[in-house]
Write a structure and sequence with these properties.
single chain
Length: 96
């Protein structure tokens, strides 16, 4: 059964997350060089739908094996580790 609230929340979160990301910028570049913007749209939309399908399937499988609380904790730890790594790497001298 479809849940309109989940659809809207997911749409909003993914839409905001995708604004200005490298996928959108790549699509922008392809469209700027193309004489067939519809072809670029179809290719880009197909790729996004396919990666979303993979994420939903993988998330469904992981969700059956791992509790939501554990997933939240693991996600939190991963974000903290990535944040620390990003900060740490910004203080290292640039090579070259």
């Amino acid at each position: 059964m479809l849940d309109l609230r989940q659809i809207l929340v997911t749409f909003g979160a993914v839409f905001v997350a995708e604004l200005g990301d490298k996928t959108q910028l790549a699509t922008f570049g392809f469209a700027a060089e193309s004489r067939s913007p519809l072809s670029i749209f179809i290719g880009s939309a197909g790729a996004l739908v396919t990666t979303s399908l993979l994420a939903v399937v993988a998330g469904g499988l992981v969700g059956r094996l791992v509790s939501p609380a554990m997933l939240q904790r693991a996600s939190g730890v991963l974000f903290v580790v990535l944040g620390i790594w990003t900060l740490w790497s910004s203080f290292r001298p640039a090579a070259g």
